[in-house]
Amino acid sequence: MSISVEEVYETARMILYHHLDIRTTTLGINLKDLISSNFSACLNRVSQRIATIGERLVVEAGKLETKYGIPIVNKRLALTPISLVMEPHATVKKFLRMAQTIDEAAGQAGIDFVGGFGCLVQKGLTRSDRILIEALPEVLARTQRVCAFMNAGTTASGMNLDAVNLVGPLLLTTARKTENGAGCAKFAVYVNAPEDNPFMAGAFHGVGEPDFTLNVGISGPGVVRSVVEKNPDCDLTQLSEIVKQTVFKITRAGELIGRELAKNLGIPFGIVDLSLASTTASGDSVADILKGFGLESVGTHGTTAALALLIDAVKKGGAMASGNVGGLSGTFIPVTEDAGMARAVRRGSLTLDKLEALTAVCSVGLDMVAIPGDTPAETINAIVADELSIGIVNDKTTAVRLIPVPGKRPGDTVNFGGLMGSAPVMAVHPFSASRFLKRGGRFPAPVKSLKN
Amino acid sequence: MGKELLFISVMGRDQKGIVARVATLLYRAGANIEDISQKIMDKYFVMVMLVDVKDAACSLEEIKARLQNLGRRLNLSIQIQHENIFKAMHRV
Fold first, then answer.
1. DSSP annotation of A166
2. For labelling, which of A6, A95, A331, B32 has a CA lying 20 to 30 Å from the CA of A316?
3. A2–chain B Cβ distance below 8 A for any pair
């Protein structure tokens, strides 16, 4: 037999017991050719394109699930940033209609989420960008599947603090309009946002992308945790080696399915994103991998080193497995969606400050962090500015997805239900940075050239 | 024309008639058994069959549904997966 019983057994166990799956197949769709001065024609054509290609994605992904026996958990779409498409129709009302049209078409096609309802504002805001941001609380409250993003900076152009200053009010308004503030989970603010990220909330189809492209997000925390736990005493080089080997296998599965799915859809294959994506399922947790490394509780001293080692090994294994690695390919550990992270917050070992520190090495940001509902808008903006400046200066993607939960105080538990999980509300610093933030303007692009 | 090869993995408690029942199911579905191997691993009975479904009388979905139905009756986990997934994951 070309494959041994052991190898078949290993794969079967990964799927049955350790949550091996393809976390997402995200189809990027160009909408630039649908920009029209006739708004209802634009709406119709957007709706038609989403419904047609979305339905095909769902059907073809289903066939591959049967063929390979691996679940494809999410079928998603990523659109051209909507503020560009809506330049000729920039009113709050029309943005809402566009969002509802997208939501409905995606729902009919069986699509889980649609990303791209956002704007690229690293250097400044157009009128359309401003109105999109104004419309977002209503959009996030009145649609189910539409995800929004803002790219507020790049290493090459610096950070747009005027745009960052809009985030706090946007989140607080959205939180008031949705139960437990859950609408905020559909919005992420980025710097150096990748144009081919398959993960929500930040997925969008970049302006440098072709008409269509298929991007894949692999799974993995459960599988990696299980091999780490089988090797409790090996040294760090060996530990890195076993993580690499495991991630190689997972990534190859993602690459195979992504390429075949793209081929069957007749579109180019984009990238495999190597992020380890946690879920609320027991053991499918990045925090539990780090415990397996030997940390008593995530967030304690040693966590930054352990996470850096983990993600470096993930990238090495993944890069060997796929020639088209892209997207976030770091770790974006969602606190509420990762039961181990939520536990660490509950027992007091993981704070917002430590989460921020992790982003200096390999994390992509503060993801799914519940904060008190009475956090001032300026404090939210300051948290965002801190996180994004780490990305700007270190030439990497960073992002923030915060949920200010109305009526909740630090330590209170908030349950978002289902896949979004539950976690304690995390404390924020009580001291203000508002005078600093009120200065506005642009955080200049950092020096990257004086290297001698 | 080439073959369409899939691996069937059966895992669970050893009992009489597993091979016979899976083989009968495959015979009725028109799939050809190319190879078969079994082992006890982590105290589990593990059987792996390589089957060619190129000339099968029914669809892969149908074969899969019948296997899963059999698995439920015998309290075994039965998976069927195209060989390419194993080649991708286990061969450089």
1. T
2. A6
3. yes
State pLDDT tens for residues A287-337. Answer: 999 999 999 999 999 999 999 999 999 999 999 999 999 998 888 789 999
Residue pair A429/A379 in contact (Cβ under 8 Å)? The answer is: yes
Q: Based on the fold, state whether residues A304 and A388 are members of the same structural domain.
A: yes
Distance (Å, whole) CA A409 – CA A62: 43
Q: How confident is the model at residue A175 (pLDDT cuts 50, 70, 90)?
A: very high
Distance CA A258, CA A407 (A): 43
CA atoms within 13 A on the CB side of A403: 33
Can you give the C-alpha Rg of chain B in angstroms? Answer: 13
The residues with which A113 forms a beta bridge, in sequence order, are: A76
Mean pLDDT of chain A: 95
pLDDT in tens, A382-416: 999 999 999 999 999 999 999 999 999 999 999 99
pLDDT digits (tens, 9 = 90+) for A182-225: 999 999 999 999 999 999 999 999 999 999 999 999 887 999 99
Query: Is A8 in Cβ contact with B7 (below 8 Å)?
Result: yes
User: Do A182 and A278 belong together in one domain?
Assistant: no
Q: What CA–CA distance (Å, rounded) separates B38 from B52? A: 18
Residue A283 forms part of a structural domain: yes
The verdict on a CB contact (< 8 Å) between B79 and A15 is yes
Test mutation, B3, B6, B7, chain A, max A CBs within 10 A:
B7
Nearest chain B CA: its distance from A379 CA (Å) = 46
